[in-house]
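Posting this for the archive.
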Amino acid sequence: MDTQILQIDENSLRLAKEIILNGGVVGMPTETVYGLGANAFDTAAVESIFKIKGRPNDNPLIVHVHKDYDINTLVKDIPEYAKLLAKAFLPGPLTMVYKSRGKVSKTVSCGLDTLAIRIPSHEGAQKFLKYVNLPIAAPSANVSKHVSPTSAEHVLKDLNGRIQLILNGGNSIGGIESTVLDCTGDVPVILRNGLITRDMIAQVAGDCQEYVYKDGMRALSPGMKYKHYSPVCRTVLFSYNEISRAEEEYKTEINKGVKAFILCDGVTAEKINAENVLNLGKTESEIAANLYSKLREGEEKAELIIAVAPEKQDGIMVGVMNRLSKACAKG
């Protein structure tokens, strides 16, 4: 199979719809990362997502819809705070989990009685979703456990020959996946941190809790259970207070002939004496937007990525640290 990257226009949208209606999958842009989309009503199509990615079959998917889609046809029992949050943040990088009406394939939620819904703000994603006018189940468009893709080229590198079409919407500006929020209880609960922070949610909803996942528990959200976001080279993570140790590690590895690179924010980059630096930028938005692209750049150049955590750990950086920790995890 030849994989095409096409700009989003009438012709590519027509082809994308044809593929979707025939049970195929399409690489699609969003403002966070690129997704691998299939018709959420079609069990065989949804199952093909898991096969193409090599994704564990107990790791639920998110359904994407356009901004005018009536989600009441898919989910029920939407609390008032969820309506307020939707008004405040959607379209945008917030996924909201509700009780499912059981209309989409059970494979989407891996047997759970809930359904995760997202309305992306990316213009190209909206055009695609409006054109097909179907709920599209879509995890990140990469091989399972690898670094998430933030460009059409990233998708091609992972899935070339496995899918027919990638809709090119440019580089994703958000950079890390959406916040996933459980809206099935009296208080919203964050299942996965992202660009919409706990404080932002609490300001609208009045309160916001955070779910703590423990080994052996069932995954309620993507990104919760397994190692994710990992480059193919070796990685090691140091805290901000361990900058000197990271620098020593770098020098030791370089002296051994290892191609080592330090991954850090712009503030740390100015402090570290190293020639090989993957600079994430200085602002929270820059760091989030650049994380995956710099991890992918690192795996192209390095045998070892030595990551240094940013000093700031709250707000958007909670989501960044979640990804960075998983990217550098063992196993």
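The longest strand covers residues 94-100. Residues 263 and 307 are 5 Å apart (CA to CA).
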